[in-house]
Specification:
Layout lengths: L2 H14 L22 H4 L14 H7 L28 H22 L6 H22 L16
Length: about 160
């Protein structure tokens, strides 16, 4: 047989079995032991919504009101990320630039909402503070390689 005829036969089998239902291959595979739920942990552990309780569950819940529930065991399979590093404090110029960037428009908005009288020089100062803060932050951003990278800075991303 040629490879082409083998491929044609495979396609015929696929087309012929298109409307057939597949067998459940997972039916023969047993559950992993850690997936098994026992009666003690499966009933009344707080996973059910309040409206999902069966009529007989109310009596069992009333019997357990005085019992202390043991905390759930810690699952070792979950990833617990390390604590994030502290935020950098920045220098005085950066903090002043951020204050000017947000403070100028915030003052104008607050003055407009509270109907404070706004002289021309106050509006000019607030808009100038916004523009100056933005320009200083953009200029200080720096898009070049670090100064300590040496002569071969490699792939700069």
């Amino acid at each position: 047989m040629t490879p082409q005829s083998d491929e044609d036969e495979v396609w015929r089998q696929i087309v012929a079995s298109f409307n057939e239902t597949a067998e459940d291959a997972s039916a023969e595979q047993p559950w992993p032991d850690r997936e098994n739920v026992t009666e003690e942990t499966g009933a009344g552990d707080g996973d059910d919504a309040p409206g999902d309780a069966a009529p007989g569950d109310a009596a069992r819940d009333d019997d357990r009101t005085g019992e202390e529930q043991a905390p759930a065991p810690a699952d070792d399979d979950h990833y617990i990320p390390p604590a994030p590093p502290p935020l950098p404090h920045g220098d005085a110029l950066s903090r002043l630039s951020w204050l000017a960037l947000f403070g100028g428009p915030a003052y104008l908005l607050l003055a407009a909402l509270l109907q404070w009288p706004m002289d021309g020089w106050i509006v000019f100062a607030a808009v100038s503070a916004f523009i100056a803060g933005f320009v200083i932050l953009v200029v200080r951003m720096g898009d070049g390689p670090p100064a300590d990278s040496g002569w071969d800075d490699g792939a700069v991303v």
